[in-house]
């Protein structure tokens, strides 16, 4: 497995800490221009990639890709073809620059959602949590009611136009499941809410370049047996990227946890990755905010990330030792 970390576009303290902790690969969002808009241009991607190269990281994943710009496409409204054209441009440039994985999701209207970002956990650390009961009276968004079948149709429309470009560019499309995996939220349906739905989605337009971001936390909230799903999707060659995290609870009510304190057997999960010989990128996902941190970016603190990186590396070493024994 390639130990990766989601990093900002310019070197900062986390770059240095990640390198010191043994991270070898980078996950990045789109480069941001001076006016705050994201860029899909070759030169901006090249400059960002070279900054990582010069620091000793291999840029492996663009995530979440066009998330903020893809909602017209996801909703199937005016402007979706322009959004898809930008996505095609990005993937062509990624292929030209040997950036192999594009992580995307199909959560329309808004991305991952929590009802609390300050839930206390072990030792007073803070985590995010979700309680669907608190959303029952939430108002509709400007999109109104968005039924599931409309989203399925829109996903197929997108994939029919993007997969040929990904194939020609040798870029892997890694679909992230919905978080939280409940439907609807504020009138907008969610469709990638189970392992079965994730598999249905990547088979809408079958391709060797269409696979998944196996987000352990999202699938755990959906009630999945994580090691089983790793084995099934991994043997099929469909895991392109891994988000390593855990939760306690279920889709309608859960809290995130320290990586060693959730409901998933994390050692069994890591052994499953070694069993299927997964050699793609894995990054630490959502971590607790720990003592001395300000919680301004919940889930993305530095101290919890270092703890989780050490925990993951220890599990990997143990799993590799067991495999060789």
Main beta sheet strand tally, sense and closure:
8 strands, parallel, barrel
Low-confidence stretches: none
Inertia-based shape = globular
What is the share of helical residues? 25-40%
Structural class per helix/strand content? alpha/beta
Strand residue content:
15-25%
Cα-based radius of gyration, to the nearest Å = 19 Å
Count of alpha/pi helices: 10
Total E-strand runs: 12
How would you characterize this protein structure?
This protein has an 8-stranded parallel β-barrel, surrounded by 5 helices. Strands 5-6-11-10 form a 4-stranded antiparallel beta sheet. With 325 residues, it is an alpha/beta fold. A hairpin with a 5-residue loop joins β5 and β6. It is 38% helix and 18% strand. The chain starts with a strand and ends with a helix. The protein has helices at 13-20, 42-55, 71-75, 80-96, 148-169, 195-202, 216-221, 226-235, 266-275, 303-324; strands spanning 2-6, 25-28, 58-62, 101-105, 116-120, 126-131, 172-176, 210-215, 239-244, 247-250, 253-256, 281-284. α4 (80-96) packs parallel to α5 (148-169), α8 (226-235) runs parallel beside α9 (266-275) and α9 crosses α10. The mean pLDDT is 96. It is globular, with a radius of gyration of 19 Å. It contains 10 helices and 12 strands.
Brief summary:
With 325 residues, this protein is of the alpha/beta class. It has helices spanning 13-20, 42-55, 71-75, 80-96, 148-169, 195-202, 216-221, 226-235, 266-275, 303-324; strands spanning 2-6, 25-28, 58-62, 101-105, 116-120, 126-131, 172-176, 210-215, 239-244, 247-250, 253-256, 281-284. Strand 5 (116-120) and strand 6 form a beta hairpin.
């Amino acid at each position: 497995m390639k130990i990766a970390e989601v990093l900002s576009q310019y070197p900062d303290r986390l770059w240095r800490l990640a390198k010191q902790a043994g991270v070898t690969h980078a996950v990045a969002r789109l480069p941001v221009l001076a006016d705050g808009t994201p860029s899909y241009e070759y030169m901006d991607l090249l400059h960002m990639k070279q900054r990582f190269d010069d620091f000793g990281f291999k840029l492996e994943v663009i995530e979440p890709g066009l998330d903020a710009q893809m909602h017209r496409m996801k909703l199937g409204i005016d402007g979706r073809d322009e959004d898809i054209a930008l996505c095609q441009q990005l993937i062509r440039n990624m292929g030209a620059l040997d950036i192999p994985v594009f992580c995307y999701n199909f959560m329309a209207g808004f991305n991952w959602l929590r009802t609390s970002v300050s839930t206390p956990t072990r030792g007073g650390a803070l985590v995010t949590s979700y309680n669907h009961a608190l959303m029952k009276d939430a108002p509709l968004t400007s999109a109104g009611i968005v039924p599931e079948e409309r989203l399925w149709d829109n996903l197929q429309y997108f994939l029919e136009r993007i997969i040929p470009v990904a194939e020609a560019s040798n870029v892997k499309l890694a679909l992230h499941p919905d978080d939280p995996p409940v439907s609807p939220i504020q009138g907008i349906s969610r469709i990638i809410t189970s392992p079965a739905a994730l598999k249905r989605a990547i088979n809408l337009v079958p391709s060797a370049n269409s696979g998944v971001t196996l987000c352990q936390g999202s699938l755990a909230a959906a009630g999945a047996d994580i090691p089983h799903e790793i084995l099934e999707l991994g043997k099929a060659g469909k895991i392109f990227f891994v988000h390593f995290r855990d939760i306690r609870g279920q889709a309608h009510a859960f809290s995130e946890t320290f990586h060693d304190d959730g409901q998933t057997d994390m050692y069994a999960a890591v052994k499953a990755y070694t069993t299927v010989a997964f050699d793609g990128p894995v990054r630490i996902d959502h971590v607790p905010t720990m003592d001395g941190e300000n919680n301004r970016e919940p889930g993305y603190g530095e101290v919890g990330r270092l703890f989780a990186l050490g925990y993951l590396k220890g599990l990997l070493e143990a799993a590799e030792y067991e495999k060789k024994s």
